[in-house]
Amino acid sequence: MAKTKIQEAVLSLINETLPELDNVDTTKDIIAEYGINSISIIKLIVSCEKMFNVSFSDYELDIAEYRTFDDLIDKVRGKLEESEA
């Protein structure tokens, strides 16, 4: 799946899962810019797991793994590429 399609899908999930965020820029720091906490990132990751039919390890649930939403998009893309191989 192309990165732009993944990005669009993740942005849609962000809007559904974290509706308090407006005009999300996927390149900005999620903690400093949007106040994302560990609970919020886990909710978003669980939504990604369901939408893309992928699994994240416990280690991958750590907010430190995701400086930006692009980091999450890249992680989803990598998981999709692994499943296609």
Keywords:
85 residues; mainly alpha; 3 helices; globular
Question: How would you briefly describe this protein structure?
Answer:
By secondary structure, the chain is mainly alpha-helical. It has 3 helices and no strands.
* Biggest sheet layout: none
Which class best fits the helix and strand makeup?
mainly alpha
Q: Specify the overall morphology.
A: globular
How many DSSP-defined strands? Answer: 0
Question: How do the SSEs run, as a string of H and E?
Answer: HHH
User: What is the CA-atom radius of gyration, in angstroms?
Assistant: 12 Å
**Low-pLDDT ranges:** none
* Ends distance: 13 Å
Proportion of residues in β-strands: under 5%
Provide a descriptive summary of the structure in words.
The structure is a single chain. The chain is mainly α and 85 residues long. Helices cover 54% and strands 0% of the residues. It has 3 helices and no strands. Helix 1 crosses helix 2. The chain is globular and about 35 Å long. The mean pLDDT is 94.
Question: Which SSEs are present, and which pair or pack?
Answer:
Layout: H1 3-17, H2 38-52, H3 69-84
Helix pairs in contact: 1-2, 1-3
